[in-house]
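The following block was generated as part of the benchmark described in Methods. Ligand: 5-O-phosphono-beta-D-ribofuranosylamine.
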Amino acid sequence: MKGRKRTAVLISGRGSNMRALIEAARSPDYPAEIALVLSNRAEAAGLAFAKEHGIATAVIDHKIYAGRGEFEKSMQVLLDLHKIEIICLAGFMRVLTQGFVQHWQGRLINIHPSLLPAYRGLDTHARALAEGAKIHGCSVHFVVPALDEGPIIAQAAVAVLDSDTPETLAARVLAQEHVIYPGALAALAGGLLTVIGNRVACERTAALPPALKVPDFPK
Ligand code: GRF
């Protein structure tokens, strides 16, 4: 496919979502190419996988900068150098400034391990269990200055089992993350999304990624 959108994936650790995006983008029909993997931590495990797949990687250690703005200026230089058009946050553990988020508005997306707007922030699985939730899941959303807010592109739900621990629940949610994130990036890169207020409409083409199809819930 021509004109694949040059995409950067920002990570801080394991990088399993990054891996799902890289694997999806190996298909020549996929509308995005992963052109850069950027980590704020040199020890992020995901970097090795990206390198093995011939993807440019970079580490920018936030700790050597006086503030968030300075750190982001360095990131922006690198993003410009690699002609990046879309950014996917995938377990990137830094809060971004309003200036950076506004610069990338509509081109910056994140995956969060809960059915937003429930359980913003950390420890989502333990919190869902503690509150006795029966359904839990994950969301891909456009990033806005407020943490874990922004128009939702895709969600997937899993049933909470009586036997669940935070770890078992996290594993089932993570498997769904790996489905919806590549789907959401494909829809964005393919120009299928329109944001109206806080809602995201997705053009229903034949080529719609399965993760973006309307689920068959009981009516
Ligand atoms: C995922 O659960 C993601 O939803 C959250 O951070 C975790 C990152 O995992 N934002 P990985 O690095 O993609 O494996």
